Amino acid sequence: MRLGRAILAVSSATVLACSSADPPATGDPAAPPPDAVTCAEGWSADASGQCAPDLPSGPCAPGTMPAVGKTACATVGTTACQPGFAPHASGWGCAAVAPSVACSGATREALGQTACAPVGDCAAPFPPAGATHFVDAAYGAGDLDATHFRTISAALSAAPAGAVIAVHDGTYAESLTISRGVRVVGRCAAKVTLSGNGRSPGVAVLARGAGVSGLTLSGHATAVGVRAADAEIADVVIEGGLAPAIDVDGRGASATVRGAVVRGVAPRTNGISAGLFAGAGAKVTLTSSTISGAPYAGVLGVDAGTQVDVEGSVVRDGTPDDQQMGGAGVYVFDGAAVTVTRSWLHHNRRAAVMAFAKSRATVKDSLLDDTQPPARAASTEAFGHGLAAFDTGALDVENTTVRGNVGIGLRLTQNATGNVRTSVVHAQQKEASGDLGTGAYVHVSSKLTVSGTAFVENHRTAIEAFDDGTEVDAKGCLFGFTRASLDGKQGLGFYLQHAVARVEGSAFTGNLHTGIYLWEARSFSMSRSVVQGTKPQESPAILGHGLLVQGVPSVTVAGSVFRDNAGVGLVFSDATASVASSFVARNAVGIHAQDGSILQELPEVTGLPDAHAVAVDAQTRFDGNGAKVGSGVVPLASPLEAR
Questions:
Q1: What is the pLDDT of residues 456-490, one digit of tens each?
Q2: Which of 265, 380, 551, 592 is the Cys-Cys partner for 243 at CB 3.0 to 4.6 Å?
Q3: From CA 321, how far away is CA 333, in angstroms rounded?
Q4: Of the given ranges (5-9, 16-20, 238-242, 550-554), which has the lowest mean pLDDT?
Q5: How far apart (Å, rounded) are the C-alpha atoms in residues 530 and 508?
């Protein structure tokens, strides 16, 4: 089953002509028995007495993929769904366990519960143990003394550091300043409201050891602001008023926000708009909370030294700012860092998570889904992203599901970097023009390292990379079942243009058009990988190749499998390549070269051959193809348009 030793010269015919077909996989009856053959690791002798790669005998179930050297399907993607999430019905990744509609009033989405959870406990004993000062708008003159007040402001004026102010049911039209380490504790957010006039802050925290809990804050120009202080903000509802709802700014400022809701705040004209803002080196932890309908960003962190941690929270339904831009779930820039853990970022705009300008976003055990385009978008970027890093931004992603975002699941651009592990990028949606729905898009000198991750059931391409300086390293990944994009075109597993990629132990399964398409890429290498079941493009119904290489000076393929592709297993046009110790089976045509590329068989292949040669070693086996070697000219594809 070897290539003839003669060099195959390509004719000028315009249709694909075939050489003699490979014999069927059952082999020659005179072949030696299987135990007479010594096969490489991960390969075994088949019924014909020849070595074939160990692979699953049938299709792999969702959450698994074929891997060279394994007869059982290998696990790929999210390793487990964390508390608050459950396996998605598709079998790919996780889904949030949460109410089907957004919560309202003094309730919030609590991951793991399908009913809205109350904010705080109105039935808990009140005043709380340890209360030292008491506020009730209904107090009469005879009730007032050194520890009992009608207003919270009066209690704050009297309370020393360490005091606990208990606020009874009622509405208090006040703007508070906490200048000592005092805690203000309302009965619960459903029964205690601090209302504002739209011009003043709700609570200004200027001291360490301060706290605010059990309140609804409504109608303030910033509900809680923290400066050179630390604050605990718990079991509060912030509604209406101006963004940012929670503003923690300055080195030395910190806040812990727990069990809170930020909902429906309005954008600030010519100012910072966000549900939660942290800047100038501040530290903020947001846990078991919901931010909904925030303008520009649900969570916004800026400046070097700023750190925001989001855990077990929901950030959803982002809205535009006063310029009709933004609406991101979590956004960091200018050196800030954010860690998102076990959280759900749903139906935001532009991006669920975005890192810009030397900032870093770390995302673990989370779900990022249904991101929409920005309200006002340039014609070249009328789409959303699940994850995005721009201009030296960085992403680190683990055990996370990125699903159903309109446009692109993961994007790196302008010298950005990304490291993605054991995650699922599933079923991104096409944007309004019918284009995109791409799993991952890497360009403008950016670098993506991805391992153990499934890019499945996306549109256009599972992953595509453009431009000089762009690099992709993939290990143990699945790029599969990509669907057509605009006008029934594309549906590729992997596309590389003017960039570099290295692939190891991965699978390209059930794609359309081409499993792997290299167009004037700088270099590409793959080892111990599988390209199988590629179907023709939907409209027009052409191609269906495993590997298509056009104008690439350096391609190396080792220990890989190309099987059951509707077109040609491997196509080389104006390319230089080596193919070693691989298996090419049951394709319409095994291998083809044209446009200056010539096929050579060599006893062994070490490194690249001379320019425009495609060297195939004697250990590469062709089996059961309609034709082993093609002749004539194979119609080639047009390069994809960069977006």
A1: 999 999 999 999 999 999 999 999 999 999 999 99
A2: 265
A3: 17
A4: 5-9
A5: 6
pLDDT tens sequence across 175-207: 999 999 999 999 999 999 999 998 899 999 999
Give residues with Cβ within 8 angstroms of 225, minimum separation 6: 201, 203, 204, 205, 246, 247, 248, 249
Cβ–Cβ under 8 Å, residues 434 and 383: no
Which residue in 268, 399, 365 sits closest to 321, CA to CA? 268
SS3 363: strand
**Rounded distance, CA 245 to CA 276, Å?**
6
Helices (H) and strands (E) in the chain, counts: 1, 66
Q: By the 8 A CB rule, do 398 and 432 touch? A: no
Of 291, 169, 276, 166, the closest CA to residue 231 belongs to: 276
Residues 6+ positions from 554 with CB-CB distance below 8 Å: 522, 523, 524, 576, 577, 608
Between the alpha carbon of residue 500 and those of residues 257, 346, 598, the distances in Å are 44, 33, 23
Strand partners, 225: 204, 247
The torsion angles phi and psi of 154, rounded to 5 degrees, stand at -65, -40
Residues 547-582 have pLDDT tens digits of: 999 999 999 999 999 999 999 999 999 999 999 999
Closest residue by Cα to residue 215 from 172, 255, 250: 172
- Residue 279: CB partners within 8 Å, gap ≥ 6? 248, 249, 250, 272, 301, 302, 303, 306, 336
